[in-house]
């Protein structure tokens, strides 16, 4: 079996390793990949979606897996193009991927299908936005389009709101687009992952991620500074409620709206005092949740995804252990406002009781070292029978890895756990 994974970050590194470790032992390919990923997968010499599809067809790729979201909505859409070329694809069609690509589309979908979520208004310009905010704080502002996890601002006061409004409408930092003004919700967050095959779904191992840069959940939002995963993160009763009020109605809603879906679907939830509510959908696995979840996976992920992409739902092919997994992200100097490349990374070889997934690194052949090459650089992941054991290992292993200006939260696995 030949599998091609689309993406280049830590999530794709984790997915590729999980596929490669599957009993069906697929040959792995990646686009665009990275130096670290290329140790496990052959890079595909494509330059865009069209040449990628062409290459996969010519090289008889059995399964294309969408790691990241951007290709799902680029041009005609990765899954649509794969379908036209006869390549099974694990990842939804362009029209379904609007659930992630447009916050407005997602909000309308949620309301139409009576799925619990915060109330919201959509503003086309600065004046409208100010009208909807109406001086009430905290307020949540969400840019309508894809913004690599940076298009959301939880604003505690007018100054914070005005600063984000100016990024969106004056500087146009995320390009053209409208803005959602959403009700501020409170409660712990949890990431739920579904593997959807048409009208069927399997709920995978849940996780919690840490979006803020600083300890104590302070500072700016990032792509994710760490994650904890375990089946024990959510009680069976709560998972039941999440399934009944959110997962099942979402899958039924996709069918009712004629939105085809085969692939991972990520439900970003807030456990509010009135029950779980959806704060976002993502049409792919979470990053860095994937790095925490994959080491807990048992069975044959490759066979499961291939069957799913072909429309065959085979949930017995995979399961998750009862262990805990903790993922600590190391980010480069200046992240998330900027990032710093070319800082030599030390200590990678001394990680023994964990695994290092590369997110933004490059191999310097001359010096014989990996160097930073992006905002989020690495994820160090470790497991244990208890949360305490897993986090102790993860932090101990992460502390062995270093580079100039590295940023790492020391409270991953502590914060948000009583
Ligand atoms: P999103 O990209 O939509 O997941 O939002 C990023 C982060 O902003 C979430 O993980 C939450 O911490 C926060 N957030 C999003 N929506 C809300 C909301 N309605 N109320 C409070 N916080 C929110
Ligand atoms: N961990 C958040 C995300 O993948 O969007």
Distinctive features:
alpha+beta; 5-stranded antiparallel beta sheet; D-amino Acid Aminotransferase, Chain A, domain 1; 5-stranded parallel beta sheet; Dna Ligase, domain 1; 418 residues; single chain; Rossmann fold; 4 domains; binds adenosine monophosphate; binds glycine
Give a short summary of the structure.
The protein is built from 12 helices and 24 strands.
Q: Could you explain the architecture of this structure?
A:
The chain is globular. It has helices at residues 10-20, 49-58, 70-73, 78-85, 98-101, 103-112, 126-133, 158-170, 236-256, 289-293, 301-309, 387-398; strands spanning 2-7, 27-32, 42-43, 63-66, 89-90, 120-123, 139-143, 152-155, 179-182, 189-197, 200-203, 207-209, 212-214, 218-221, 226-229, 262-272, 275-282, 297-299, 318-320, 324-331, 355-358, 361-364, 369-372, 376-384. Helix 1 (10-20) links the parallel strand 1 (2-7) and strand 2. Helix 2 packs parallel to helix 4. The strands form seven sheets. The chain has a five-stranded parallel sheet. Strands 12-15-20-24-21 form a five-stranded antiparallel sheet. The longest helix is centred in the middle third of the chain and has 21 residues, at 236-256. It is α+β, with helices and mostly antiparallel strands. The protein contains twelve helices and 24 strands. Bound molecules: adenosine monophosphate (AMP) and glycine. Glycine (GLY) is lined by residues 149, 209, 224, 282, 286-287, 289.
């Amino acid at each position: 079996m030949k599998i091609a994974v689309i993406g280049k970050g830590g999530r794709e590194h984790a997915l590729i390793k999980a596929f490669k470790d599957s009993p069906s032992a697929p040959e792995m390919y990646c686009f665009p990949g990275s130096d670290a990923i290329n140790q496990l997968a052959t890079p595909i010499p494509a330059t865009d979606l069209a040449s990628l599809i062409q290459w996969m067809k010519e090289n008889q790729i059995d399964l294309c897996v969408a790691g990241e979201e951007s290709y799902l909505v680029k041009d005609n859409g990765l899954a649509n193009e794969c379908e036209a070329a006869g390549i099974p694809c694990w990842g939804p069609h362009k029209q379904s991927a609007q659930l992630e690509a447009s916050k407005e589309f997602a909000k309308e979908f949620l309301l139409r299908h009576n799925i619990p979520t915060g109330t919201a208004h959509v503003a086309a310009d600065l004046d409208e936005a100010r009208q909807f905010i109406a001086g009430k704080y905290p307020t949540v502002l969400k840019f309508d389009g894809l913004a690599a996890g940076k298009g959301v601002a939880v604003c505690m006061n007018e100054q914070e709101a005005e600063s984000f409004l100016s990024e969106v409408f004056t500087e146009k930092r995320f390009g053209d687009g409208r803005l959602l003004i959403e009700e501020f919700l409170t409660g712990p967050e949890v990431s739920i992952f579904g593997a959807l095959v048409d009208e069927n779904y399997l709920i995978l191992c849940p996780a919690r991620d840490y979006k803020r840069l600083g300890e104590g959940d302070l500072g700016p939002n990032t792509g994710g500074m760490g994650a904890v995963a375990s089946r024990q993160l959510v009680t069976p009763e709560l998972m039941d409620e999440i399934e009944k009020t959110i997962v099942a109605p979402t899958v039924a809603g996709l069918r009712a709206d004629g939105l085809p879906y085969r692939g991972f679907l990520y439900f970003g939830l807030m456990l509010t005092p009135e029950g779980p509510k959806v704060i976002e959908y993502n049409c792919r696995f979470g990053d860095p949740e994937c790095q925490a979840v994959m080491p807990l996976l048992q069975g044959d992920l490759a066979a499961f995804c291939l069957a799913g992409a072909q429309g065959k739902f085979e949930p017995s092919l995979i399961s998750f252990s009862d262990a805990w997994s903790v993922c600590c992200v190391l980010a480069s100097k200046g992240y998330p406002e900027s990032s710093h490349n070319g800082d030599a990374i030390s200590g990678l070889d001394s990680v023994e009781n964990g695994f290092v997934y590369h997110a933004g690194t490059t191999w310097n052949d001359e010096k014989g070292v990996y160097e930073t090459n992006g905002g989020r650089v690495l994820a160090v992941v470790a497991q244990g029978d208890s949360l305490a054991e897993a986090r102790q290992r993860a932090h101990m292993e992460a502390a062995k890895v270093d580079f100039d200006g590295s940023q790492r939260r020391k409270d991953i696995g502590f914060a948000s756990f009583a």
